[in-house]
Amino acid sequence: MAKAEKATAVAELRSEFEGSSAAVLTEYRGLTVAQLKELRGSLGGNAKFAVVKNTLTKLAANQAGISALDDLLQGPSAIAFVKGDVVEAAKGLRDFAKANPLLVIKGGVVDGKSMNPDQITKLADLESREVLLAKLAGAMKAKQSHAAAVLNALPTKMAQLAEALRAKKAEGGAADAPASDASDAPAGEPVDAPADADAGGE
């Protein structure tokens, strides 16, 4: 490969690393062209599976700030560059590897963090982004419905409370009302003098 071609290949790989949320390194020794095509289809539309040269890939990864793959870049290598849901791509790789043991997941980098084969396989056991978003939306909708029900019930609760307080006040007022005296007489009306008071005021 000419120097210019190598530089172009490295630049393209670096761009893939920098533009991907995950990169999963595999060994594909013994897989046919038809099987590789099947594998690409199983990864979904958010992942690109590319056969790579180890030396150029190591150089490109290092330029992109990734060194976790250095020791893994041995033998026939191919990388799944994931630009969307990592879980979906991990499921595709896991399921294909189960049916085709010649595909070996060697490790990878997810969101800048190094992951071994077991960790990548565990990713495949998680629910996809779409399922999680659907569950989140359902939970939010349920909470909104509950909040709306509480708000709708507030006027009724307030009315019931007000009525209870009114009834209690009326009941207590009738039982505890003091006997009327001169101070309770309406203004401007004469007050009867006590029967034993002297008429002359002496």
Characterization of the model:
The protein is α+β, with helices and mostly antiparallel strands. It folds into two domains: 3-126, Ribosomal protein L10, N-terminal RNA-binding domain (Alpha-Beta Plaits); 127-169. The chain is 53% helix and 14% strand. It has helices at 3-19, 33-42, 54-63, 86-99, 117-124, 129-176; strands at 22-27, 47-52, 77-82, 104-110, 113-115. The protein has a five-stranded antiparallel beta sheet. Residues 179-202 have low confidence and may be disordered.
Element-by-element helix/strand order: HEHEHEHEEHH
CATH architecture of the largest domain: 2-Layer Sandwich
Oligomer: single chain
Number of separate structural domains: 2
Gyration radius, in Å = 41 Å
Instruction: Write the CATH fold name of the largest domain.
Output: Alpha-Beta Plaits
Given the structure, what is the number of helices? 6
Q: Which structural category do the helix and sheet elements fall into?
A: alpha+beta
